[in-house]
Amino acid sequence: MLSYAEAIADFAHALNDTDHQAQALSDASRERIAVYRNNARLNRIDALPAAFPTVAALVGDDYFRALAREYVKTTPALSANLHDDGAGLAGFIAGFAPARDLPYLADVARLDWAMHRAYYADDVAALDPQRLAALDGDGFMRGRLRLHPAVALVQSTDWPIADILAMHQGGPDAALAAGGQAVLVWRSRAGVQHTRLDDVHWLAALLAGQAVGDALALAHTDPNPVLARLFADGLICDFEDTTP
Amino acid sequence: MTHTPLAPLAGLGLRSPHIADVLAQRPVVAWWEVHSENYFGGGEPIAALEAIRADYPVSLHGVGLGLGSVDPLDEQHLQQLKQLVDRIQPALVSEHLCWNRHQQRFFNDLLPVPRLEGALPLLAARIAQVQDVLGRQLLIENVSSYVAFQHEQCTEAELLAELVARTGCGVLLDVNNLYVNTLNLGSDALAEINYLPIGCVGEIHVAGFETVDGVTIDTHGAPVCAEVWALLDAALQRFGPLPVLLERDCNLPPLAGLLAEYRELAAHITRTTQPEAVPC
């Protein structure tokens, strides 16, 4: 007779491997494990379109469902929370042979995912401005900023992801020849926001935790409008003072 | 003894497509139940739930903790649940008698626990761990099952009763799940109800099911059937007045249609628990 742990292991084996017959189950009900295989798969497949609306719009519902089915088949779920499940979809698309004629799709998926994560990101309080008021300018430049977890910078080397997103939100047709674009994603009181950014290296450095001064030195254009937006929407959450 | 901080009235499962309508209309509903995982994290979802919580009692119903998994409990999931409980201050917190993870791999479904040697100590330890972290009682829901294990040593009600005795948890009795199990596995729903100790049940669920390829699937996608109404009455007669939730997940009707089903449940509970209040 199997123990509890042995029966679970046998059940899990049969969920993962359709050739495995779960001996832990009664003869009369053994075949019905298919219901669980289907439920676990369909729950994941059904949840993915909501996280990837732009990808789904680009390829159509049937194509997206086929893509999601392959993703779910080859990618174990790493969370009980279905809202976490698409973390690997962009990487999967990049290696998905049938999507080779849509080479921009993986980068659009990264943008969709960043917006999905921004929607569910934890609430984190904004930095108290008093913390900065006490610093001199050099102290600020030497320190590091921690940004809100909803903030993400999505960069595509080759594809106009901002234009593609705009097209699916009612804008003009995107021209693929426009080349690579970057999109800043964040969350304000009004919900998830995004904007195209052309000068991004300084912001990528800031997000990566480089000192403020070192990051700003990379800017080719005035970074103040973006910084002002980040402060205004409460997205600067902490300042690490590195003054010796 | 299970505390029932909710009044013994009908409640309604709240799903995200209805939230805007509920906030705008503030319908007459005694309490709402939501799936905990849908409110993990911050932003718009939890802000909406806080707005609802300001006007209604809320029950948090988890689908992802996987209490029966042999893998250790997912600490991050448990901490996210704790943050949600601390923020929403729900009337009730519940989870399922199920597992969902093996060797780090998740199965996004409610998998039945084998009632075999080792079930009781593992489940009791996990429930105690969750109750310690949350600092409050957890209600454990009986699940619908499509499979039976060989050589099971007890019924689900016997296992639940022992978990109640060992951990002080309560029971969320889903009478639709009991009925689905009678159809799929030939179990005895009334015997399960009658085995559970009086006082251990803190909430009841009713829902509808659908039949696919000869298997009855607990989809929460159809109205409540006559047999489930009868089991609800049997449970209310045994355990006394309790909060009763109408669950609907699939084939979700517009809010107005769901509210009509809700009022039917509320009237049914009134007829069952206060027969003298109904003229003729």
Summarize the model shown:
With 244 residues, chain A is mostly helical. Helices cover 46% and strands 11% of the residues of chain A.
Helical run tally of chain B? 9
**Major beta-sheet overview of chain B:** 8 strands, parallel, barrel
Question: If strands are numbered along the chain, what order do they take across the biggest sheet of chain B?
Answer: 1-2-3-4-7-8-9-12
- Rounded to the nearest angstrom, the radius of gyration of chain B is 18 Å
β-strand number of chain A: 5
- CATH class type of chain B: Alpha Beta
Main structural class of chain A: mainly alpha
| CATH H-tier superfamily of chain B | Divalent-metal-dependent TIM barrel enzymes
Mean pLDDT of chain A: 95
The low-confidence runs of chain A, each spanning 5 or more residues with pLDDT under 50, are none
Which stretches of chain B are low in confidence, meaning pLDDT under 50 for 5 or more residues running?
none
The backbone outline of chain B, from C-alpha atoms, is globular
Say what the CATH topology of chain B is: TIM Barrel
Taken in chain order, the helices and strands of chain A follow as HHHHHHHHEEHEEHHHE
Task: Give the class of chain B from helix and strand content and strand pairing.
Answer: alpha/beta
Quote the beta fraction of chain A: 5-15%
Q: Using DSSP, what is the number of strands of chain B?
A: 12
